[in-house]
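[job 4471] stage=fold_predict status=RUNNING
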Amino acid sequence: MRVCVIGLGEVGLPTAKYVARKGFEVQGYDINEIAVKRSEKSGIRATKKWHEVLPAAVYVVCVNTLLKGDKPNLAPVFDVCEKISEKIESAPLVSVESTVIPGTCRKIYKKIFKERVALVHVPHRYWAGDPVKYGVKQVRVIGAVNKKSMRRGLRFYSERLKIPLHISPSIEVAEIAKVAENAYRYIQIAYAEELKMICEKLGLNFQSVREACNTKWNIEIFEARDGIGGHCLPKDIRYLASLGKHNVLSTSATAVDLKYRDYLKTKKRRVKAG
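[job 4471] inference complete, writing structure tokens
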């Protein structure tokens, strides 16, 4: 049974390696030559030439999604799904693990695949900081465009890959869940950043205040470091904010992080100035 993993970056390559360990024939695809070479060194057959990709029973989409300004740019997912549609010989299972907004997968299913595939959305929760505990195999959310797709998805992820799953009542729930959980974490960190600025203005040690607050059973104030970095959190908070007018908290959180970054730069300049 051949599985094609598309996108061989921080999430895609560990996914390909995990699937291969479960006994599947795995082929990887990425437009980045460095990613392809890294995959081959890891024992995963890969290519950057789409015509070399053999038709597969399962396609796992792990490409990065992007921003255009503060709006979602899902072009990478649509592009690879267009490529997959060229390879369809029977009715493969297509799993979108990339982060998308509600409505994306159903649109792809109808407009690109013409309902000729089984399609599920199983957003990744991979964290490179602890790939054993929070790697490919951890509790994941699964949503599907229909019951048949759900059965195929459960057979692949749960029965064959042994990945524990939370079944969403619709694919749209699975789509927004990933965005919402990352946005939630962003807001938590932004609160810590704002509290740190307030504490330092009052001449108080933020770490001492944080430790005092965190003694309460239902409080966990995060650390405030150098601003909210990485790819996922800054992108997903904006994905959530783009979904409607009820976005006061999410847009405020991004404003706090920008203000905090400026605050840190000002502190550094003052230290240098002596």
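[job 4471] summary: The radius of gyration is 21 Å.
[job 4471] exit 0
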